[in-house]
């Protein structure tokens, strides 16, 4: 699903404020540009550059002595609601809740000993933003919904043997969330709830060279628990009791991936992937304090399937292609206008140009066909009925330096 986005500011850290359009739900799979052209097929087995710190830290054992990766993603999502609200209130359909975004990430890996590699990643594993017109018919349920994360991911990899490598990482995360909507009283004041917190988790990985031509990667990222603390505020003095402290408990889900990389010939690679995300952790959104309210989410665990191929056209050029399918983690009955997520089908192309022995440029483009998500959402005395017209375009580039 797609969302309007503010430009990501990076100053020694990355803040994720991104569309709900990439990994299912509000998980973000765009952690490099080198994998986009393959629709991120085989991401835990490719181990092509230092971005493997995110996808499978064990893959660092395949890298040169020192490597830096810097990537950026231009994203144009679209999410337009069409429907009705009861009881009837004035207003439009909300406009396009999507917009342009620039999302960066970066990685550094180096060889400590012949068998031990260390690295660190800087990225945003989760993020979303939807923002509707302030006078739309669903304004009592949602106007702005924004979640940002920053993740610092120090990692280690150990080469157990010529065929097996193991890896692990620590994920130190910060989260900030903002929710706004109007309330159905005189003047329709705007209520804003904002809070943040820190949390931590871990990721594990294994890479097995089954044959000289075939690798299998297995990776796992743990869930992260938060208790966000912040404030509720309103634009109307008459509802002053709504101004004060609030807390909200949120669990960001764990995930696991099984990936395959197979070299069909010196010029052709085949990649495949199955990934699972434990979205059933996101069963409700409780807010306590000055505002005491629980939104039932009732999400389900979901799977992502992908298949890709790479053609090494020459010593300098490689071309990529891939397809993928993300299951929707939420049904029409529990979908809300804050997170109107739907199943997506990816079609991706990309390539790589080797600038020199020490520098490589990767690029990719993907179009996401989003199944029209239906909506039957009741909140704040109103019921929204309708569906979304959604799609996403992603353009990514990456520079890799070896030194």
Fraction of residues in H or I helices: under 10%
- H-E string: HHEEEEEEEEEEEEEEEEEEEE
**In angstroms, what is the radius of gyration?**
22 Å
Total domain modules: 1
Strand order of the largest sheet: 1-2-3-5-6-7-8-11-12-15-16-17-18-20
For the sheet with most strands, the description reads:
14 strands, antiparallel, barrel
- By CATH, the architecture is named Beta Barrel
Outline type: elongated
Show unreliable segments: 1-21
Q: How many strands?
A: 20
Task: State mean pLDDT (0 to 100 scale).
Answer: 90
Which structural class matches the secondary elements?
mainly beta
**Span between termini:** 39 Å
Determine and state the CATH class: Mainly Beta
Per CATH, the superfamily is: Outer membrane protein transport protein (OMPP1/FadL/TodX)
Q: Counting H and I runs of at least 4 residues, what is the number of helices? A: 2
Would you give the CATH topology?
A: Porin
Strand content: over 45%
Tell me about this structure.
- With 403 residues, the chain is mostly beta strands.
- It has one domain: Beta Barrel (Porin), CATH 2.40.160.
- Helices cover 2% and strands 57% of the residues.
- The chain has helices at residues 43-46, 52-55, and strands spanning 66-86, 101-111, 116-123, 128-131, 144-159, 164-182, 190-211, 214-221, 224-234, 244-252, 255-263, 268-277, 284-289, 293-296, 302-311, 317-326, 344-354, 359-370, 374-379, 382-402.
- The chain has a 14-stranded antiparallel beta barrel.
- The longest helix has 4 residues, at 43-46.
- 49% of the residues are buried.
């Amino acid at each position: 699903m797609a969302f309007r986005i503010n430009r990501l500011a990076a100053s020694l850290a990355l803040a994720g404020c991104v569309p709900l359009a990439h990994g299912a739900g509000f998980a973000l799979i765009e952690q490099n540009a080198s994998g986009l052209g393959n629709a991120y097929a085989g991401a835990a087995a490719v181990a092509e550059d230092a971005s493997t710190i995110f996808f499978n830290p064990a893959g660092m054992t395949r890298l040169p002595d020192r490597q830096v990766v810097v990537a950026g993603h231009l994203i144009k999502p679209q999410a337009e609601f069409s429907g009705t609200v009861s009881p009837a209130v004035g207003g439009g359909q909300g406009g396009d809740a999507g917009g342009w975004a620039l999302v960066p990430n970066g990685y550094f890996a180096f060889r400590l000993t012949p068998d031990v590699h260390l690295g660190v990643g800087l990225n945003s594993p989760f993020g979303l933003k939807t923002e509707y017109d302030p006078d739309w018919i669903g304004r009592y349920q949602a106007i702005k919904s924004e979640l940002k994360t920053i993740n610092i991911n120090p990692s280690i990899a150990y080469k157990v043997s010529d065929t097996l490598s193991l890896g692990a990482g620590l994920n130190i995360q910060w989260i900030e969330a903002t929710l706004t909507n109007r309330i159905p009283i005189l003047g329709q004041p705007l209520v804003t709830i904002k809070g943040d917190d820190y949390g931590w988790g871990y990721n594990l990985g294994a890479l097995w060279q089954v044959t000289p031509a075939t690798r299998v990667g297995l990776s796992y990222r743990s869930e992260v628990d938060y208790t966000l603390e912040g404030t509720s505020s309103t634009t109307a003095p008459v509802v002053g009791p709504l101004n004060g402290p609030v807390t909200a408990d949120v669990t960001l889900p764990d995930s696991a991936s099984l990936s395959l990389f197979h070299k069909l010939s010196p010029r052709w690679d085949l990649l495949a992937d199955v990934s699972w995300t434990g979205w059933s952790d996101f069963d409700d959104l409780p807010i306590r304090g000055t505002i005491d309210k629980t939104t039932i989410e009732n999400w389900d665990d979901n799977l992502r399937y992908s298949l890709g191929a790479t053609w090494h056209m020459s010593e300098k050029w490689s071309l990529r292609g891939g397809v993928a399918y993300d299951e929707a983690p939420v049904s029409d009955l529990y979908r809300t206008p804050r997170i109107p997520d739907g199943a997506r089908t990816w079609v991706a192309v990309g390539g790589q140009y080797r600038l020199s022995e020490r520098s490589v440029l990767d690029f990719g483009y993907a179009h996401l066909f989003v199944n029209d998500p239906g909506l039957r959402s009741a909140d704040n005395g109103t019921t929204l009925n309708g569906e979304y017209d959604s799609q996403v375009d992603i353009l990514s580039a990456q520079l890799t330096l070896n030194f």
